[in-house]
Design goal:
This protein is mainly alpha-helical. The protein has seven helices and seven strands; from the N terminus they run βααβαβββαβααβα. A hairpin with a 5-residue loop joins strand 4 and strand 5 (about 90).
């Protein structure tokens, strides 16, 4: 169930999205869910939908990128953007633009190898680059550590709170 400013959205909310579109499917799933999705404004709901759509699209792009799955000890990354840490994570190089570094993973996936938790973080960051644009992403995430959920940026635990910054 979705609420915006404490009220259920009117039927016109769905009408704003084409039948069969990813955003419409996401909105329908949220609306029929037993979980309550509460937004202060319609803009926050739109942000949520845009981010969910971008996340699905980023997952598809990463799947087609050539990125290889490997255990941490066999991790690999493009040295132009990333240092591979001793424990198999990726640390953004000093001076490397964060958005370009994330996008490079999608564009030159064959230069990368990592395990699945890191791949999930890459998908999330890729979605955020799309939603925010490179300049804003770079301001919000000037230093990135990719590895697993233990290094998750605290702001990524609630996407909705990012929209308000």
């Amino acid at each position: 169930m979705i609420t915006v400013a404490g009220k259920r959205p009117d039927s016109g909310t769905l009408a704003g999205f084409a039948d069969g579109s990813l955003k419409r499917n996401i909105l329908s799933a949220m609306e029929t869910s037993t979980q309550r999705y509460a937004f202060d404004t319609a803009a926050q709901l739109e942000f949520e939908l845009a981010l969910r759509q971008a996340t699905v699209e980023a997952a598809h792009r990463l799947y087609g990128s050539g990125l290889r799955f490997a255990v941490f000890r066999d991790a690999a990354a493009n040295p132009a953007y990333w240092n591979v840490t001793r424990d198999g994570g990726f640390s953004l190089k000093r001076g490397a633009p964060p958005a370009r570094a994330i996008l490079d993973i999608f564009e030159n996936g064959s230069a990368y190898a990592t395990e699945c938790a890191t791949a999930m973080m890459i998908v999330l960051y890729g979605a955020l680059v799309k939603v925010y644009g490179e300049a804003r992403f770079n301001r919000l995430f000037p230093q990135i550590e990719l590895m697993n959920w233990h290094r998750l940026d605290p702001r990524l635990q609630s996407f909705g709170s990012l929209e308000r910054k």
